[in-house]
Structures are given as structure tokens and as C-alpha cells.
Amino acid sequence: MKTVQPRLSQEQGIALLGVMILALVLALLGAALLDMAGQEASSASGATDVAVSQAVADAAQDLVIAWFHSPHTSPSAVAALLTKRQSSSDGSPSFFDQAGRSQFIGTSDHPDLFLDASRSADPHLLNDAGTGMFRLLDDLGSVQELKVYAPGTPGLLCTVDATVTTAGSSARHAVSMQLGALEIPALRAGIQVGGNLGLPQVAPESGALVHWGDLTIGGDLTAQRVEDLPSQSDSALVTGVSYRDMSHREDRWLSMWIGGPVHLMQLSPGQSSSVVLPLNVHANRHPAPGVRRDHWGYERLKHLAKQHGTYLAIDREGLLYASGSVEPGHGMTPDDYLRSRSVGDTRGLIFIDTLDQKAPRADNLGEVRLSAGYLEAVLVVQGHVMAGPAGSGQSLTVLSPPAGGSGVAVSRSSVQLSDIHLNGALYAVGNITLDRSMRVFGAVAAEGTIATTHPGATMELWYDYEMGRGLFRGVPVVMRAPGTWMVRYE
Fold first, then answer.
1. pLDDT number for residue 142
2. How far is CA 183 from CA 20, 86, 186, 189, 192, in A?
3. How many C-beta atoms surround the C-beta of residue 227 within 10 A?
4. Is residue 294 within 8 Å of residue 187, measured between CB atoms?
């Protein structure tokens, strides 16, 4: 017995030491796991903060993009900066000068636009809960700085920097991107035709009637009576009332620019053949000083549609092909393809090519038949158009042109228009023929003429002032330039 007890004590001591070492190892392992869990939680919190901050910065930049599309909705402090201040070679408003240089010339240190929440006036403008530009982001964070300045890449429009903080952190995060611009030449008149307008037929009124803008005619104008020609008056009511429902036809913004003479088919009692035309009717402008008409080049619009819109082929039966080439059995009627279901269902820029998909000539022009009750689009047809809208169209609430000036801050009236069949622009290389009367909000141009198949069919148009500034609904004005988005931390 005396030889066994020391051995048992030694074995018990070794076992106790092992247990203590195991307990220590487990304690260290537990501490390490707790530390890792804390780090994971901190990392997850930090990742969430970064994601939220980037979302806030992106939302701020998206709002700047929206301002470019609707300058009249942007704050007065920035509206003038975001409008087109240059002129292209054809005189259209542009973001670029004729050498291709952007109108934005600032730097990051001295930007064209700089809003800073640390300055006394800007916090209210930026983040005020009631009126701030970014008030809808209040639950997520706030915008500390917003900069717009020259692009870093030639050919682009500008750089937009947004610096933000999140609601759960005071750390500042900044996101930078560059914008490119898509520029469609402006349509600076309500209706433009290259040839003669009107036929010597017995009809209650001329075939093309314009409110709120100009009527431009390359050739002669034939009208039934001088009373059919609306006069221009600053006191004219700004409404959606048709000319046919007016006892005296007048409009605030209508001017008629006519290359040749005005032919009147009827004289009212007491009138002589040398009747005096309204002062807003400018006839006999050829050969000098001429009539200015806007031209949309074939290759340019085709390229824009393929990049940012819809390109369609057409066959001799007038069927359209979304694939861009004529494939028998796969064609769609224009009515099926182009119809807008409701106001806001914008089809964007649509380009319908010639029969052989080459530059337009007299022998390769197809014919597009428009019978949809409502179409919301910028439609470019490299051919002829037969328009006979079925149905009564849609009601729109629109803005009139500015009263008393052309700036973004002048007064514009909200007007209700009824029975609108086309909400947008129609540009035809050939002729537009009316099989039924058609009401339009926007602009229409035909390099040929606008004709009617029977007396009484008319196109009555209310001009969209924004189209004179190169802004077309459904067509992007600016877009994020690929590969220019960057994030940095401060």
C-alpha cells in the first residue's frame, strides 16, 4: 500500500492539470469567438451603413438627372444652370458649343453648381423636412454637398458629386458619376411642312391648325377665308378650346411663316381680292429671307433610335418588324405595335425605316397607317403617314408656353386638353394624309405636306413648348455614362 499511494497522487495531479489546461483553452476559444462575433456584427453594421449611404447618394444623383429632364420642376437656384445654353450648327438649343465643348466648365474645387449643408442658406434648400430638395431621403440620411462641374471625359456633359451622411452614422460618403447627353434637334414650330399646304376644296377650315406656336410652310398656303387664319393677341384666352368653337380665332403665340403667297378661296361680303392678312401671317418669304424649318437627319436619328429607342423595319404592306429586318410572317400592324394604353404609357423614340433601310428616296418610302386612338411617342417615319385615329383620344393636363418671356421662372398656365390622339412628336420624310380629324399635343413635321382625303378632316395641334428646347417626353435628355461611377470615403 505504501508504494501505490504516491503513484495515485501523481496521476490525480496530472489529470487536474489537464483539466485546467482544457478549461483555459476553452476560455480562450470562447473569447475569440465572442470577439469574432463582435467584429462580424460591426462589419455587418458598417456594410449596411455603406449600402445606405450609397443608396442616398445615388438617389441624390437621380434627382439631378430628373432636373435635366424637367427644368421647370427644379429649384429656381439651379434651373437656369441645367437648361441648354449653347446652340448647335442648325441653331437648336444644345448643351454643347459648335466645337463640341460642354457648357459645364467648372472643377471639383470650383464647380458650376455647389450646394453645401454647412453654409447658412443651403441646409434649408437641401434637407428641410418640409421643402428641402432631398426631404424624401430624411429617414435614410441627408445630403451634405452636391456638385456639378465639367466632365472628366471629352464628349460627356458633366460630373455630379454627392456627399451624404446616413441617419445612423456621422461618417461622410461621396459618390461621383459623369453624365452623357442625348440631343435630338429641337422642333421650333408646332407644324412644319416643306411643300404647299391646303387644297382648293370646299371645307369649313384649313387642314392644319396650330395653337401656342408657329405654323411653318415651305410653299403656298391655301385657306378658305381670311377668317380661318387665327390672329395673334396677347389677350387671347389660354385654353383647350378648338378654333372651330371660337367666334373669333386668335392665339397668343401663333405666327405663320409661309414661303409663297396665301390663296383665299372665298371672300366675305365687303372684302376685295386685296384683303389684308393678319399681322402674324408672314407670306412670300421665298427666296429671301426664306423660311426656317427644322430637319432631322436620317443617319443621326437612326443611330439614336438603335441606341436609346426602338428601330423598326417596314414592308410594302405597312407591317412593322421589331427585329429590324423584314421576316415574312412576323410583321405587326402599326396599330398593334404603337398604341399607348393610357396617358403615361410612353413609347419613347421610334424610328421606322425606309423599305430598303437606306437613306430616303422617292422610290423607297413606305406608308405607315396610324389608327390607334392614342399614341404617346416621338415617331420618326422615313416614308408617308396615313392618319385616321379611331376613338376619342385621351384627356391631358399640360402646361402652356411661358407668358411674357422665355425663362424657366415665368408664368405657365395649366390647361386641360381633351380628345388628344397624339401626345408627342411626328416627323415624316414624306406626306402626312388625314383620313379622320386628329388632335395633337406636341409638334408635327412633314418634309412633304399635310393633306386630307375628304373635306373637313383637320389636324389641330397645341404646341409643346419643351420641344422647342430639345426636350421630348420618353426620350432621355441625360444618362449615366458607363464606367464613370465611383465611390470614395471621407
1. 79
2. 78, 12, 9, 18, 20
3. 16
4. yes
* CA–CA distance, 162 with 482 (Å, rounded to integer): 18
Phi, psi of 314 (to 5 degrees): -140, 145
With beta carbons less than 8 A apart as the criterion, state whether 321 and 327 touch: yes
> What is the predicted pLDDT for the residue at 489?
57
H/E/C letters for each residue in 243-304? HHHCCCCEECCCEEEECCCEEECCCCCCCCCCCCCCCCEECCCCCCCCCCCCCCCHHHHHHH
Q: Block means of pLDDT (10 residues each) for the chain, length 490 residues?
A: 54 60 62 56 50 77 84 74 86 90 95 86 71 70 88 94 80 88 94 90 70 97 91 96 94 97 81 83 94 95 94 96 90 91 94 97 96 96 96 94 65 94 98 95 97 89 95 91 79
Which pairing describes strands 113-116 and 438-446: parallel, antiparallel, or unpaired?
Answer: unpaired
Task: List all residues 6 or more positions away from 176 whose beta carbon is below 8 Å from its beta carbon.
Answer: 159, 160, 161, 162, 484, 485, 486, 487, 488
Please report, to the nearest 10 degrees, the dihedral formed by the alpha carbons of residues 86, 253, 258, 439 taken in order.
100
Answer whether 452's CB lies under 8 Å from 207's CB.
Answer: yes
Please give the Cα distance from 80 to 399 (Å, whole number). 18
Question: Which amino acid does the sequence have at 26?
Answer: L
254, 228 in Cβ contact below 8 A?
no
Displacement of CA 216 from its chain's centroid (Å): 24
> Residue 360: is the preceding peptide bond cis (ω within 30°)?
no
pLDDT in the model for residue 313: 97
Q: Which residue has the cell 388632335?
A: 439
In angstroms, the first-to-last Cα distance of the chain is 78
pLDDT of the residue at 204: 52
Closest-CA residue to 378 (of 479, 478, 476, 472): 472
Q: What is the pLDDT of residue 198?
A: 86
- pLDDT given for residue 355 in this prediction: 97
Q: Count CB-CB contacts under 10 A for residue 56.
A: 23
Secondary structure (DSSP) of 188-213:
-SSEEESS-B--S---SS-SEEEESS
The whole-angstrom separation of Cα 85 and Cα 380 is: 26
Cβ-contact 295, 194 below 8 angstroms: no
The residues pairing with 223 across neighbouring beta strands, listed in sequence order, are 264
